[in-house]
Amino acid sequence: MGAQTGFRLPRICLPRPDIDLSKWAVVACDQYTSEPEYWRRVDELVGDAPSTLRLIYPEVHLGASDREARIGAIRSSMSRYTAEGILVPHDGMVYVERQCGERTRRGLVVCLDLEAYDYSRGSASLIRATEGTILERIPPRVAIRKGAPLELPHIMVLVDDPDDTVIGAVAAGKDRLRRLYDFDLMLGAGHLTGHLVDDLGLEREVASALESLAAPEAFAARYGVDRGHPVLLYAVGDGNHSLATAKAIWQETKGGGHAGATSLAGHALVELVNLHDPALEFEPIHRVLFGVKKDLLGELRAHFGPRVSTVHVDSFGAMKARVDEGAPDRHLFGIVRPGGVAVLVEVTRPEANLPVGTLQAFLDRFMADRKAAEIDYVHGSDTVASLGAKDGNLGFYLPAMRKQDLFKTVIVDGALPRKTFSMGAAHEKRFYMECRSLA
Q: Who has greater pLDDT, 258 or 12?
């Protein structure tokens, strides 16, 4: 199904009915990477209960000396959960509703063909990265995923569907679908409901809607490009490095001529989300430097010359308001210094399209010269404010981008600077729920 669109129906696995789902589901592994206390709370909450926490590698631990032991424990848990019948297979897509506060985001768990995905810069594939892929982040993930008998997705892939023809078709028929799960997520992260889409009519509606979006004539008219322009149907919103890892393993598997190389490893389990879903909000991803060794304001002046100005402001809130307001002719971002000192930075005649591009070009050079020990990418204004205020650190506050600009920007300009945006705050990210067998 869906040869033109890279779309496949999955066989998913879910915990059997007696499993406590509030302990089973945990947030994406690349969240709270500078907040180990969050993951300690999760570990305490889960205890010995079956949980996806035992099937993933939280990236807060990527620098740990016991990495091989952790990976071994993951493999062991995957094998044990399978052998003990903890996971039950179901054939079909899953319609997902994720409630956070007053908003409910809708999604559809499907398989996508990795042959239709290319994360390299300048890609013209059907599935593309929205942000630059950090190649050095792929090998550690390959070590974790390679040979694993299960995959668990935190990948969220966007479709630009203003008329809601893809997911809306399923939502309208929800009442005739079997409910698979319905529970509160841990640590106040909201509520999650899933329905099995095993209705042939709905499957065909989804496939037809995707084919219509991928039609070259409709694509060219939608974005004002030539009819021969390569179609972008899916834009990876979250989890691009996980998808890139799956692609790398598939390339190796296919190149090695392994038996079964045309089936399971050639697809990846993802959640499709409509870019126009009212509950989907784009949040900025801020930066934090640790172990800063140089006068950063002086480095900014040396890098940008007379195009940069820095002004101390009364509070983080005042700086945040000014950055969020923006300016038509210059790029603005904020700095949080030890003690909570806030600085507003303005760069005129910027060379990048977005403030995040202006800042990232500077930070890349700053880090290449080893003028700080480490950089991290964090969600939420409170997090960047608290981390930036600590001795030896600096926090960088950035504005959000308009989600309506995403597809056209990627089509015309290519991938955005890495870590440009986040689809919601950390607690709103996808929680691991569904699994897929790779064996």
A: 12
